[in-house]
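User: quick one, sequence for these tokens?
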């Protein structure tokens, strides 16, 4: 059993009965962004999906083996769809597997975009009212599910044995 995964995921499911799936992996841009210990800024339409809907868990203490730390992560996540685990990576949650996966992909890409934009200069922020309105339009559970569908169709087309 993966004790670290259990400590985190069990605590999230306990705290959030609405969560059907949690997506987490140690992705390149998520890990890089997590070292900054900060939220994503609303600099693109895609990043706005996370506007005021994600958190940063700032307490890195090594591999999460203590159930109490899993509960702290779940508490920090709150009602949000995503959390940046300091010096660790990203974790997204949602009411469907498809949406949880989509938010993970979108967050990883948003980390990549913001890292590139900051390396090039000082990105312009989307105004809070517009960022919130955009989040409401593109950041719902249904939007996450729907956005995953073309990727799922591509996976099934390229890997037909997956379903056998």
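Assistant:
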């Amino acid at each position: 059993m993966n004790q670290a995964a259990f400590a985190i995921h069990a605590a999230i499911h306990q705290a959030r009965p609405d969560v059907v799936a949690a997506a987490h992996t140690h992705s390149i841009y998520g890990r890089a962004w997590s070292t900054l210990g900060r939220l994503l800024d609303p600099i693109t339409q895609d990043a706005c999906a996370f506007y005021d809907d994600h958190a940063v868990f700032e307490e890195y203490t090594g591999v999460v083996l203590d159930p109490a730390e899993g509960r702290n992560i779940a508490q920090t996540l709150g009602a949000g769809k995503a959390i940046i685990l300091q010096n660790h990576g990203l974790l997204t949650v949602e009411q469907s597997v498809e949406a949880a996966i989509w938010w993970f992909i979108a967050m990883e890409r948003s980390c990549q975009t913001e890292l590139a934009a900051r390396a090039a200069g000082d990105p312009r922020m989307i105004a809070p009212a517009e960022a919130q309105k955009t989040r409401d339009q593109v950041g719902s559970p249904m939007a996450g599910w729907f956005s995953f569908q073309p990727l799922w169709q591509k996976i099934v087309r390229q890997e037909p044995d997956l379903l056998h």
